[in-house]
Structures are given as C-alpha cells and as structure tokens.
Amino acid sequence: MTTQTIPRVDLTPAAADVIEKLRAQHGPLMFHQSGGCCDGSSPMCYAVGDFIIGSSDVWLGQINGCDFWMSDDQFEYWRHTHLTVDVTRGRGASFSLEIPMGIRFLIRSRLFGENEMNHLTPIRIGGEA
C-alpha cells in the first residue's frame, strides 16, 4: 500500500479561477507569504522573476502550477498548519497582482492531524537546487 503525500498548501476553486486570469495576463506566476509589513499574513502573487526568493525562504509546494514560498520565520509559526489560498473582495495593502481586480488572496488554515504530519510534502529551502 502506497502512502499519499499530503500537500501543505491548497487552493479554493475561486482562487484557481483568479490565478488562471492572472496567468493569462502576466504569464507564469508564483506566491510568497512573508511576515513583513503591509499584508504580511496574505499571500502575494507575482509574475515569476518579479520577486527574488531568498536563501532562507521555504518552498511549501505548488498551487495550480504556481510555486508557493514562505519566509522562514513565518514557516516556523505555520509548519504544523495546512494552508488554503482563497480570495475575498476588497483591496489589500500589497503589491500582489490581483489587487487591481478589487479582490485579494487570503489564507484559511487548519492544523494538520497527527496522522498527516508524517506524510507531508517535503519542503525546500530557497538556496537549494
């Protein structure tokens, strides 16, 4: 019996629709969530190459073909948490690509169950190949 890897990050159908619209306009995309200023708790969507991943950023997986990264200090808080990217109406105070659409990405979360913790998607650190 094969054990399935459990994703650390997922998305809602509404977020997938927004990603498709943004991809059509901007090309390949990526997400980053930091603990910094502005909407630090909101994931930011960028065209690939418009945000430089640091050597300590943590890759959590992909959503709809987009890499999802998080700053290492945020990851320390969220490492036991499943993240779901969603969208909501309203402008965030960020540079994320969806802002001109009058919406913003947000995170919904839940703690991983004990049985999930041993089967999570392996992380990758920014400087790793």
From TrEMBL:
Superkingdom, natural source: Bacteria
Any Pfam family matching the protein: DUF779
Protein name in UniProt: DUF779 domain-containing protein
Protein species of origin: Spirosoma aureum
